[in-house]
Amino acid sequence: DIPSQLDDLPPTMLKKDYANLPIMNSVDDVVRRLLSLEMASQKEKMKIKMQQLVEKVRRSPSDNGSSEVQGKFKTGRIRMFEEHLQRHPKDKNNRRRMLMDVDKRKKLLGYLRRVRYDTFENTCKQLGIQYSLPPPYTRRVTKRWLVKKAFCVKVFQEAQKLKAAERLKQRRERQARARAVRQ
Q1: How many angstroms separate the CA atoms of 99 and 174, rounded?
Q2: Which domain of life is it from (predicted)?
Q3: Dihedrals φ, ψ of 91, to 5°?
């Protein structure tokens, strides 16, 4: 069996919508089972798991848009896609969605790293992920690129020579005018 991130949810736990209702204490056991996670769909279990993940980093009860919360949402979705892809390895559409979420989470974490580094470290630790810096940009060197670069360098040097000659000519003209004014 493939381990799931939803395994730690107790099956007797009530669904999100029914957890805080006072009438739930007096209902029949059959009704209670129907409204518990034992009979819940994967989607409903995922909502509860996401809510638990987000509660760890939420700044206030109404905080749904901060970078930390968005990172938690993305991590929950990524883990869900990973579980799904272990069962269905040929599902290319979900693989694509997972990679898109990984990229979005990477952008969010990069932003968080630039803005509030302490929060970034805390979030990474809670998510259980290791952030790696993007590699510096390196261009693949080809013959065509080398020839093009050499040509551009040569054109730049020729343009600099022309500009230097023009500056020298202008300087001589200014000096000649300055001499004429003095005399």
Answers
A1: 64
A2: Eukaryota
A3: -80, 90
**Quick one: 12 exposed, middle or buried, by C-beta within 10 A (0-12, 13-18, 19+)?**
exposed
Is 35 within 8 Å of 14 (Cβ atoms)? yes
CATH 3.65.10.10 describes domain 16-127? no
**What Rg, from alpha-carbon coordinates, does the chain have?**
32
Residue whose token pair is 């009438």: 23
- 94-143 per-position pLDDT tens digit: 999 999 999 999 999 999 999 999 989 988 888 888 888 877 877 788 99
Q: Are 35 and 18 in contact (CB under 8 A)?
A: yes
Q: Backbone phi, then psi, for 94, in 5-degree steps?
A: -70, -30
Tokens 């638990």, residue located: 52
Residues 6+ away with beta carbon under 8 Å from 74? 101, 102, 104, 105, 108
Q: What is the dihedral of CA 6, 10, 12, 14, to 10 degrees?
A: -60
Token pair belonging to 50: 């996401």
- CB 72 within 8 Å of CB 99: no
